[in-house]
Design goal:
The protein has eight helices and 18 strands. With 325 residues, it is an alpha+beta fold. Strands 4-3-7-6-5-10-1-2-8-9 form a ten-stranded antiparallel β-sheet. Helix 3 runs antiparallel to helix 4 and helix 5 packs antiparallel against helix 6.
């Protein structure tokens, strides 16, 4: 006679079925991988950041290229310490003037050769510096103060040729990188010599900062020329005439009643507001931001009539400037 009653048999059968159909405690259902607490985050944010880093680059040779920045952040060295700026927040960068070390050595050697007794060596050095163009401009500005009469003469001729042949914005010497984000504009020096980029044409590349003038996210407006951010025009530019090569942005209102000497290049005692009208940077009565670049004075200043303003000629003057929009 069996000792197991019918109810006990049914109970045992039910438990067996449950054992076959339910996973054991701590086990994952068949066909599913366990969820790990240390699993890496989804790649969607990274892809979105890559899409947001599409920028247009303006190179020193006036070419443009659309690229994607592959660096996640930029290290900017400022007078107040190092800042780390996420690339995804960058809207625009205006790059500092950079000359590679090997090119600097080449320029310095050519400038030194301008003082050689050998006429052919001086001619070769002059041709080499002219061929280097805007890259040699900062060094030539320094050499313009040479006590050697031959060097000074050749450098002044080179500077004149470069100003005639090279667009003004390419001769502007920028000491700082300026990074624009949505709410900030920060000046400093990017510590890396290059940025990692990818292009449709050339794939992954290292973009040297010495080759680049600026980059911006399409549609992002630079803030540097906003009227509210510019300095008011000084009473005279005479105090700035020793800062040859430096560029300033001033907020001025054009007028036709001031005194001006020169054409395109003006004496530093000229009225800036009137020179701006003569140069076509502003109209009479128009308030705006103009760019003023302090330049080495030419041997003579030529007078002319433009835009309703007549300027006067002048001979030797210790300071000069150019003005543009």
């Amino acid at each position: 006679m069996s000792l197991v009653n019918p109810i006990s048999r049914r109970t045992v059968s039910l438990l067996a079925v449950l054992a076959l159909t339910l996973p054991l405690a701590g086990k994952d259902p068949p066909g599913e991988k366990p969820a790990r607490e240390d699993a890496p985050p989804t790649e969607k944010p990274a892809k979105a950041a890559a899409e947001a880093a599409a920028v247009e680059v303006h190179f020193n040779d006036d070419s443009n290229l659309k690229v994607r920045l592959r660096d996640e952040k930029l290290e900017l060295v400022t007078p107040y310490g190092k800042l780390t700026i996420p690339v995804a927040e960058v809207r625009r960068i205006e790059f500092a003037t950079r000359v590679p070390d090997e090119v600097t050595k080449k320029i310095d050697a050519a400038v030194a050769n301008l003082a050689k007794e050998d006429f052919k060596a001086r001619e070769a050095a002059t041709a080499e510096l002219l061929a280097l163009g805007a890259t040699a401009y900062p060094a030539l500005l320094k050499a313009a103060n040479s006590s050697d009469a031959e060097v000074k003469k050749r450098v002044e001729e080179l500077l004149t040729k470069l100003r005639e042949e090279v667009p003004e914005e390419r001769l502007e010497i920028k000491p700082h990188d300026v990074i624009h984000t949505e709410h900030s504009k920060i000046a400093g020096r990017i510590s890396a010599p290059s940025l990692k980029v990818s292009t449709a044409q050339f794939g992954e590349q290292q973009m040297k900062l010495s080759d680049v003038r600026s980059l911006n996210v399409p549609g992002a407006e630079p803030e540097s020329t906003a009227v509210a951010d510019a300095e008011p025009a000084p009473d005279s530019l005479m105090r700035l005439q020793g800062n040859v090569g430096k560029t300033y942005r001033f907020r001025v209102t054009g007028n036709v009643n001031g005194s001006v000497w020169g054409t395109d290049v003006y004496t530093t005692d000229s009225t800036l507001e009137t020179a701006a009208v003569h140069a076509g940077a502003l109209k009479p009565g128009q308030t705006g931001v103009v760019k003023v670049t302090i330049v080495a004075p030419p041997p003579v200043f030529v007078g002319s009539t433009r835009n309703g303003v007549t300027t006067s000629p002048y001979t030797i003057f210790p300071g000069a400037f150019k003005v543009s929009k």
